[in-house]
Amino acid sequence: MDQVTIIGGADGPTSVFLAGKTGGSWISVWGLIIVLLLLLPNLLFVVKKQGTSEHYEKGIVDHLQKITRITTMLLMIFQFDVFSNGFHSVLAFLIYFYGNVILVVLYWILWIVYKKNQADSVRKVLIEIPCVIYILSALTLQHWVLLASAIIFTVCHSYIKFVKRK
Question: What's the predicted TM-score (pTM) here?
Answer without folding.
Answer: 0.80
